[in-house]
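Dear colleague,

Thank you for sharing your sequence with our group. We've completed the structure prediction you requested, and as agreed, I am returning the results in plain text so they can be pasted directly into your records. Please verify that the sequence below matches your submission; if there's any discrepancy, let me know and we will rerun it promptly.
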Amino acid sequence: MFAHGFGCDQHMWREVAKAFELDFRTVLFDHVGAGRSDLSAYDSAKYGNLSGYAADVVEIGNVLGLHDAIFVGHSVSAMIGALAAQKAPGMFSKLVMVGPSPRYVDDGDYVGGLSAEQVEELLEFLAENHLGWSAAMAPAIMGNADRPELGEALTNSFCATDPAIAREFARVTFLSDNRADLPHLTVETLVLQCQQDIIAPTKVGEWVHGQLPKSTYVLLNATGHCPNLSAPGEVTAAIRAFV
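Please find the predicted structure tokens below.
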């Protein structure tokens, strides 16, 4: 099961997912509020924290009868997958976290990569100018300045997201704190870390690895926050070696 991050949809996994279709049953979906999901199903109360999104993952898994499945989550969906695995023991035997962050805001000795002030400025900018925020932030988040088409693809994805839902999902994402959940995650987990990632710096990936009881850490050659787009072959190889 492949789960996308904030501002994206299931198409962000297209190059990676198709590499597994011959050997695995693959599941792709859009979080409510993203892609071609039913926007009328969005509920601010339910999706006011990541647990609501994790409940959806579990619901999909139950409908499909998933057992001992592999969950691959990018960015915020890494933590959504961790919560889902705890909600439904046995549904997932392995997790793959791509660019994970249990908390994006610095807190004492914990380095999340962003200060509280930076996050508030980011959220205010998004609330005031969704399209402007998308055009400014997407290329920076993607990285790979020498390949501007990647930044453009992410910009288009951000711009296609419903602005009101994007504001709420952004706040839930960037103000989340799932650090306490990691030590209780008992399934095998692969942590895939990119270099030069402004959203989930290397220290964050290392911290996640150190908190998980059964984890493998791989520092990719890929740069930026979206290796599923910028380096799908490398991501695929790392996942195959793990599963």
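Summary note from our side: The domain at 2-242 is CATH 3.40.50.1820 (Rossmann fold).

Kind regards,
the structure core
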